[in-house]
Amino acid sequence: MKDVNNLPHLSTMLCSILLLLSVSACSSEAKTTNESNLAFSDDVKAVVYIESPKVGTLLQLRGIAGKGVLIAKKDNRQEDQSTCVSAPIRLAAGDFSGDSIGIQSAEPIRLLIYSDKVAEKLGRGDEVVSEHYVITDQNDTGLGDIKIESGLTLSYGFVLNPGEWSWSSVFGLDHHDVNCSLNSNALNRPT
Prior knowledge:
Number of helices: 3
Oligomer: single chain
Organism: Marinomonas foliarum
Keywords: Signal
Protein name: Outer membrane lipoprotein
Number of strands: 11
Structural class: alpha+beta
């Protein structure tokens, strides 16, 4: 009689964990974000804020997924009043620094967008892949295209995907105008 291995294959387990991670991260509604996490300085073109991402690990693999908000400056010719647009955004990130098996909540992720090209792509609804741009963190003196302010390290590769899975996103109704000058000095604070 032939012995049957009833344990699932590693790839099946990985797919199951990543699916569970994606569903749990994207199924919950994006919470109201603290305005101090979205404020602008002159050099920043956009801010990505993921308030409650989920991290999943499977041995050496580690992935983060979350849904949050993109706040981007509009091209406005008046110097005294800056207008921004708010839109939903999804983030998926991963690296090979896992050391266990599990899913848990992670600290909020905050990315500062300094590149006009990246801000325009996100504003059009195009996805942005980190490997195509210069990514920096708090330890770097240069700004780069995207600066990781919190929640990720430079070991992660990530994808920013504007929009969400809803009819309002399909019809472009998920963009809202907001005032950029609410907390204009909050960006220069240390985190």
